[in-house]
């Protein structure tokens, strides 16, 4: 007799009855932690000391995830979220916790992750780098969604773990002048003939003004260009259209093409001494004030001497390389994105620094034949979330006396501490960088010194 496969129901996704739980602590992603029937339960939005009503929405062998339905007993640390889009937009998931407690939680989570994942115990933390709790983002990328039924384009941020675009009118963590652009920009996009072809929109506030970059997959009509020109005049911003091949057009009285090094591109200053140009799409830190404090601390911790050779891995457009070069010595910046290497070289010329050189290299690949690989005195690392594990396998060839590691993911920082410890380094300093207030994201800086 023929047998037919019948899929078993996925028990891990079954919705439970409503249950009440007591929250004991937060995990490193900012979710409340409780216990139920021998399992750890993670509850986003819940705080320690609270009694909450939840539904289990996902169950695994050792843990479960729950949806917060009601706070039955409220923590004194709970505050009313400032943003009208809280809970819908996928960002700013710790707005319900007071700012000082957010920082306390992040510092504790940083120490805990380092201890658990690398057995590195931080005896004490350096003072956290902190700044404004609101209006701090100088850069944001907004998504667009064109509804064929209503023929309207929605401008906003993605919902949590979703492709859905939540319409945004105001964002309190954005620089106020950028937040004020969202509503008029949304109205403008819906007037364009090419609104079906729109992609993301990027807003940037830097030292030479406010920028709006509109991504489109098709050339814009003359009528659309006129509307953009009127918008730039009324809002006093610089508007750039990014085409399907990433080509950039500045919308001015006479639209003109922009290339790397163009004077009209955005730039920011560090200590009023170092000027860094960048092209839309290049990585820059979104919190300008914290970036300045972070660069100053890194330069201070490395304490470069005039005769020392310094290696800056994952250097970007020169955010750390150029300030380090101003201290003297020889600085080598290495980056995996060729366009950013080109921009970094231009930035060195712009700042009249001839003791710094930049190389394009895939830092996760074999580095044995790289011309820059060799003995260095000090290293600065500023990798993406995946960390710098592959690069650290070449420590024997580099033999630096000290290493400053700037991390946007304490889990990869903890993992990368293992090869450092293995090669005789010790953790000398560790501190929180509060780059993203109102969110669970933890950034940190660590100083490792050769024993």
UniProtKB/TrEMBL annotation:
Keywords: 4Fe-4S, Iron, Iron-sulfur, Metal-binding, Methyltransferase, rRNA processing, S-adenosyl-L-methionine, Transferase. S-adenosyl-L-methionine binds at residues 285, 314, 319, 335, 362, 382. Signal peptide: none annotated. It catalyses: uridine(1939) in 23S rRNA + S-adenosyl-L-methionine = 5-methyluridine(1939) in 23S rRNA + S-adenosyl-L-homocysteine + H(+). Belongs to the class I-like SAM-binding methyltransferase superfamily. RNA M5U methyltransferase family. RlmD subfamily. Catalyzes the formation of 5-methyl-uridine at position 1939 (m5U1939) in 23S rRNA. This is 23S rRNA (uracil(1939)-C(5))-methyltransferase RlmD.
């Amino acid at each position: 007799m023929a047998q037919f496969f019948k899929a078993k129901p996925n028990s891990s996704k079954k919705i439970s009855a409503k249950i009440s739980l007591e929250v004991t602590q937060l995990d490193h992603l900012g979710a409340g932690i409780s216990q139920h029937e021998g399992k750890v339960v993670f509850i986003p939005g819940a705080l320690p000391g609270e009694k909450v009503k939840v539904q289990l929405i996902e169950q695994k062998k050792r843990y479960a995830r729950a949806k917060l339905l009601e706070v039955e007993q409220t923590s004194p640390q709970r505050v009313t979220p400032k943003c009208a889009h809280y809970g819908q937009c996928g960002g700013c998931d710790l707005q319900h916790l007071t700012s000082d407690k957010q920082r306390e939680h992040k510092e504790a989570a940083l120490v805990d992750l380092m201890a658990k994942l690398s057995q590195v115990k931080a005896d004490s933390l350096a003072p956290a780098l902190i700044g404004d709790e609101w209006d701090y983002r100088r850069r944001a990328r907004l998504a667009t969604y064109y509804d064929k039924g209503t023929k309207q384009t929605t401008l906003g941020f993605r919902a949590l773990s979703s492709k859905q675009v939540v319409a945004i009118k105001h964002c309190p963590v954005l620089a106020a002048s950028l937040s004020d652009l969202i509503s008029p920009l949304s109205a403008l996009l819906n007037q364009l003939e090419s609104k079906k072809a729109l992609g993301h929109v990027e807003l940037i506030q830097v030292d030479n003004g406010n920028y709006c970059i509109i991504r489109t997959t098709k050339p814009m009509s003359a009528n659309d260009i006129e509307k953009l020109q009127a918008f730039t005049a009324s809002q006093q911003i610089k508007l750039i259209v990014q085409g399907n091949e990433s080509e950039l057009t500045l919308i001015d009285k006479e639209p003109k093409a922009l290339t790397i090094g163009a004077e009209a591109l955005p730039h920011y200053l560090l200590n009023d001494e170092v000027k860094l140009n960048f092209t839309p799409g290049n990585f820059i830190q979104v919190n300008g004030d914290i970036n300045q404090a972070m660069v100053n601390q890194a330069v201070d911790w490395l304490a470069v001497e005039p005769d020392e050779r310094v290696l800056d891995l994952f250097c970007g457009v020169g955010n750390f390389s150029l300030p380090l070069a101003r201290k003297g010595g020889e600085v080598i910046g290495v980056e995996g994105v060729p366009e950013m290497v080109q921009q970094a070289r231009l930035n060195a010329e712009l700042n009249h620094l001839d003791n710094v050189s930049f190389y394009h290299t895939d830092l996760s690949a074999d580095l044995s034949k790289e011309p820059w690989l060799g003995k260095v005195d000090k290293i600065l690392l500023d990798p993406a979330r995946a960390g710098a594990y592959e690069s650290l396998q070449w420590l024997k060839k580099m033999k630096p006396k000290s290493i400053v590691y700037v991390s946007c993911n304490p889990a990869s920082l903890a993992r990368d501490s293992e090869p450092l410890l293995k090669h005789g380094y010790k953790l000398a300093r560790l501190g929180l960088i509060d780059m993203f207030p109102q969110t669970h994201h933890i950034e940190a800086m660590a100083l490792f010194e050769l024993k």
